[in-house]
Amino acid sequence: MYEYLQGKLVSKYTDHAIIDVGGVGYRVKTSFSTFQELPEPGQMVKIHTYLHVREDIFELFGFSQTLEREFFYKLIAISKVGPKAALAILSGGSPAEISNWILAEDAKTIAKTPGIGPTTAKRIILELKPKIEKGLGESGVGQLVSDLGDQRIENEAIMALEALGYSRSDVFKKVRTIVKDSEGSLSTEEVIKLALRK
Length: 198
What we know:
By secondary structure, the chain is of the alpha+beta class.
């Protein structure tokens, strides 16, 4: 119903913001990631929205990036994951980070989210992992691991390892661990060699 709101940011908090649009103040629930990207109160802002309607409850959820909202849609399509739980998950990491957790089957990290237990975390991985893998092309790889380091090197290492017969989930898990644990920058060859040793 509401694609986005554009107006003056009246106030912002870690879990919601108030936006004045034409003299009407909208209370919009936000993730911590969106909170961090919002400007200071008094400035103009554009926020992508989702209206949740249930019985007598009307709640607006807002996202600074359309990518975050798209990931939110994927999460709430999963059984037992409502809008509040999905927002809590997105507050724990960016879509790129959460995608990495899912590809690495890291249910423990996902289950750290308040309201998300081990069973729900495993369900999220089970349902979203195939969708994330299917949506990855050469350009998609960098988007998912961009928070870890040099995108070009990661892309090359991942594609080389896949060419050697590794499954995509193993590739992401290996590259993520290697880059994360590295004290300095690594070359493509170094990442591949370290992955082959694991």
